Amino acid sequence: MVLGKLESVTPVRRGKLAIEFDDGQRATLDLMPLIRQRTNLAPLANGQVFQTAKVSKDGWSVEWPDAGIDFGVSQLRRWADEQSGRTMSAERFRDWMQRNKLTLDAAADALGLSRRSVAYYLSGEQPVPKTVMLATKALEAWHFV
């Protein structure tokens, strides 16, 4: 995937952003779960602060200048893909493994991946590709795991 810049960002309501990328993809991101989890993001729980979101001058991030907080375009795209169902979050991948009682090695074998790739997906260090997400669904539906 070629990563593009941001065209626009609009705070929809507290914790939600409507964003548009320069390739035309649009998404509404719900950031409230993340804001509640991370103490360094607490200023964004304030509706007035959240409303100050804007695209950075270079187009590579959304920023809240007065709060000293920003999110890069790659993370925003990843969240957009996860929240829309186009990809799978690390948490959902972990849930799939636990639900099917799979170790790293067993998951790697079932998916035809290296143990290292599975570890990357579990840690969130790399996004779970759509093909892997679809494979987890198929394996579970066909009771192959």
Examine the secondary-structure arrangement and name the CATH architecture of the largest domain.
Answer: 2-Layer Sandwich
**Range of helix content:** 40-55%
Give the ordered list of helices and strands.
EEEHHEEEHHHHH
The CATH superfamily of the largest domain turns out to be NE0471-like N-terminal domain
Mean pLDDT: 92
Q: Detail the poorly predicted runs.
A: none
Structural class: alpha+beta
Our measurement of the CA-to-CA distance between the termini, rounded to an integer number of angstroms, reads 30 Å
Q: Evaluate the radius of gyration.
A: 17 Å
Write down how many β-strands occur, each being a DSSP E stretch of 2 or more residues. 6
Choose one word for the global shape: elongated
Number of folding domains?
A: 2
Sheet with most strands: 3 strands, antiparallel
- Main-sheet strand order equals 1-2-3
Strand-helix topology:
Blueprint: E1 6-13, E2 16-21, E3 26-30, H1 32-37, H2 47-50, E4 54-55, E5 61-64, E6 69-72, H3 73-84, H4 90-99, H5 104-111, H6 115-123, H7 130-141
Antiparallel strand pairs: 1-2, 2-3, 4-5, 5-6
Could you please describe the fold and organization of this structure?
The chain contains seven helices and six strands; from the N terminus they run E-E-E-H-H-E-E-E-H-H-H-H-H. With 145 residues, it is α+β, with helices and mostly antiparallel strands. The chain has a three-stranded antiparallel β-sheet. Strands 4-5-6 form a three-stranded antiparallel β-sheet. It is elongated.
